[in-house]
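[step 3/7] inverse_fold.run input=structure_tokens len=389
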């Protein structure tokens, strides 16, 4: 059977290999504490689950591509409270099936190789889906490296010819995997480039509600001119709703109109009962504050351990991840496999591109009790390494 080039050339998703190795460990009888994938293990708040249950009716209908008016209004109200920004629920946003789906599919709406707009610019190490979506849509990819200490790409190092071929520049702050944040001046610089060279600045802000001592991160929605800007956010991390698949895209009304025209053909608006549960999630902040405190408690015990052992944790000022330097200069996969033998699952930095080598990513998603257990295991393992060094 003949398949498209996008399918034929697709590389295996790296976390599939991690899942295979985890399954082998479980079948061997090991008990694992899993920091590998950013899938929260804390409960979805009960009031959200109740809203979902109450929204399930006897007769279902296809969800409208534009989403429920109540959901769009709830998102607009949340944006207003969080960022002091006024959006029009009719023209400035559209609900989406989480954020992964629009991150993958946005290139299909924006790339225009016939006119020379065939590039998607991404940062690396990073979430692999923007690059995969670009290649599936027939585009080429330029990778901008992120390096310590600030993990911001060098936008000034990109030539005019490259920007003139660019269809999308993807930025992700708070960043996955490094946990870095971007100042508003940096976002303003990127937005100015987008308008000057007429490409889309796409901002993945999935971790905007997980912050610590540095305070709340800024958003691209705070920029005074949202022309050529798309901001994506989701309830997955904010409200422990990864399985609900509920998010939104907001920004330039011209892009939102294009997505509204495209999405009835692709059928990717959340089910109506999920949308109604999403309304109550966006309306409440107390559960977000409680979850933020849980992440802070988990983060603190690991930072204390790594500081005591002289292991560098780079970035990691916001979001749910720790970007941990591999001790001893070993490959990240090698250390990840050593930790897997001890019952601790982490993601090798190489899974996020060769630029991530030398680090592992730890997602602070297990319960606090499991995190404490993992800290004890790590402390013993690192002490043994010191003895044998």
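[step 3/7] decode complete -> sequence:
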């Amino acid at each position: 059977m003949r398949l498209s080039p996008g399918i034929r050339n697709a590389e295996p998703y790296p976390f599939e290999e991690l899942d295979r190795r985890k399954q082998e460990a479980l079948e061997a009888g090991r008990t694992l504490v899993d920091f590998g994938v950013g899938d929260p293990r804390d409960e979805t708040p009960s009031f959200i689950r109740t809203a979902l249950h109450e929204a399930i009716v006897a007769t279902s209908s296809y969800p409208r591509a534009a989403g429920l008016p109540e959901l769009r209004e709830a998102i607009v109200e949340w944006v207003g409270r969080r960022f002091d920004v006024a959006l029009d629920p009719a023209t400035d946003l559209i609900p989406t099936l989480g954020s992964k789906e629009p991150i993958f599919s946005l290139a299909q709406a924006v790339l225009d190789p016939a006119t020379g707009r065939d590039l998607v610019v991404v940062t690396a190490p990073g979430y692999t889906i923007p690059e995969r979506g670009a290649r599936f849509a027939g585009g080429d990819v330029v990778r901008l490296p992120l390096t310590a200490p600030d993990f911001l790409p060098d936008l000034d190092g990109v030539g005019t010819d490259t920007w003139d071929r660019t269809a999308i520049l993807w930025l992700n702050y708070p960043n996955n995997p490094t946990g870095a944040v971007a100042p508003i001046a940096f976002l303003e610089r990127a937005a100015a480039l987008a308008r000057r060279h007429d490409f889309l600045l796409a901002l993945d802000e999935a971790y905007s509600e997980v912050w610590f001592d540095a305070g709340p991160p800024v958003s691209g929605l705070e920029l005074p001119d949202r022309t050529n800007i798309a901001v994506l956010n989701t309830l997955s991390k904010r409200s422990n709703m990864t399985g609900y698949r509920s998010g939104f895209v907001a920004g330039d009304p011209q892009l939102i109109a294009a997505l509204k025209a495209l999405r009835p053909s692709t059928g990717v608006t959340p089910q109506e009962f999920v949308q109604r549960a999403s309304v109550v999630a966006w309306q409440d902040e107390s559960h977000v504050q409680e979850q933020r405190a849980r992440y802070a408690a988990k983060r603190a015990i690991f930072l204390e351990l790594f500081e005591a052992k002289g292991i560098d944790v780079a970035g990691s000022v916001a979001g749910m991840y720790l970007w941990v330097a591999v001790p001893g200069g070993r490959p990240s996969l090698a250390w990840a496999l050593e930790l897997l033998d001890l019952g601790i699952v982490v993601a090798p930095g190489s899974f996020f591109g060769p630029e991530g080598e030398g680090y592992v990513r730890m997602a602070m998603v297990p319960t606090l009790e499991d995190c404490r257990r993992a800290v004890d295991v790590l402390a013993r393992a690192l002490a043994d390494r010191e003895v044998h060094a």
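[step 4/7] annotate
The chain has 14 helices and 13 strands.
The mean pLDDT is 94.
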